């Protein structure tokens, strides 16, 4: 984590008077879906270890770099992914996953 970011995050968390520990994941564009997330990852100002891990392999690091430099590519890839997910059919009835078989383990 970027040291300056870490210090400011600690300060922000200690000032959080609601005691819920919630801080925005993206401090720059909080209410917008954009490439800022990838810019945060690239500058080591992302909140989670899982975010930083995108920089540990060549393939994912290149993806971070591409989206940072080409916001329109991110936008188009996101649209394509959402369309693809929308075509996934939900399995129901005997085709779906049966959760009942584990109910004894979880006291349901």
UniProtKB/TrEMBL annotation:
Look up the record and give one Gene Ontology term from the biological process aspect: response to oxidative stress
| Species per Swiss-Prot/TrEMBL record | Carex littledalei
Keywords tagged on the record = Calcium, Heme, Hydrogen peroxide, Iron, Metal-binding, Oxidoreductase, Peroxidase
Family note: Belongs to the peroxidase family.
- The segment(s) forming the Plant heme peroxidase family profile domain are 1-100
The record's free-text note on cofactor binding: Binds 2 calcium ions per subunit.
| Tree of life domain | Eukaryota
Q: What is this protein called?
A: Putative class III secretory plant peroxidase family protein
Q: Which SUPFAM superfamilies match?
A: Heme-dependent peroxidases (SSF48113)
- Keyword Oxidoreductase included in the entry's annotation: yes
Q: Which reaction does it catalyse?
A: 2 a phenolic donor + H2O2 = 2 a phenolic radical donor + 2 H2O
Necessary cofactors: heme b; Ca(2+)
Which InterPro entries does the UniProt record give?
A: Haem_peroxidase (IPR002016), Haem_peroxidase_sf (IPR010255), Peroxidase_pln (IPR000823)
- By its UniProt entry, which Gene3D superfamilies does this protein fall under? 1.10.520.10, Peroxidase, domain 2
For Ca(2+), which residues are the binding ones? 26, 29, 34
GO MF: heme binding; lactoperoxidase activity; metal ion binding
A Pfam family of this chain: peroxidase
